[in-house]
TrEMBL record:
Name of the featured protein: Helitron helicase-like domain-containing protein
Domain of life: Eukaryota
Location of the Helitron helicase-like domain: 6-68
């Protein structure tokens, strides 16, 4: 793989861009069209904002670090309380079963 990337880093970057755009559109529900961001419900619900940073690894391949803010997500102190309840545990299990 490293040899392929070294031979055509432009093609590798173009493919990475295509892959990330596809994942964002299909799974996260975000699409950039003519410098405008459009969003719809993704696998985590509706998103209010996102931020990402692309880095290259030692062999030249690219990877992405991303933060996603979800609409109507509970604040952190409420999440701490929810994590301690059996009802929340069951909702997480149900979500995982429904989506995986």
């Amino acid at each position: 793989q490293a040899a392929n990337i070294a031979m055509d880093s432009y093609a590798a970057a173009k493919f990475f861009h295509f892959l990330i755009k596809t994942i964002l559109r299909t799974l996260i529900g975000v699409e950039t069209v003519q410098q405008h961001v459009k969003s719809h419900k993704g696998i985590f619900g509706c998103m209010s904002a996102f931020f990402g940073l692309v880095e290259s690894q030692g062999r030249g391949s690219l990877h992405l670090h991303m933060l996603i803010w979800l609409k109507d997500a509970p604040p952190m102190d409420e999440i701490e309380s929810l994590l301690k309840t059996e009802e929340f545990h069951q909702k997480v299990k149900d979500f995982i079963r429904a989506n995986l």
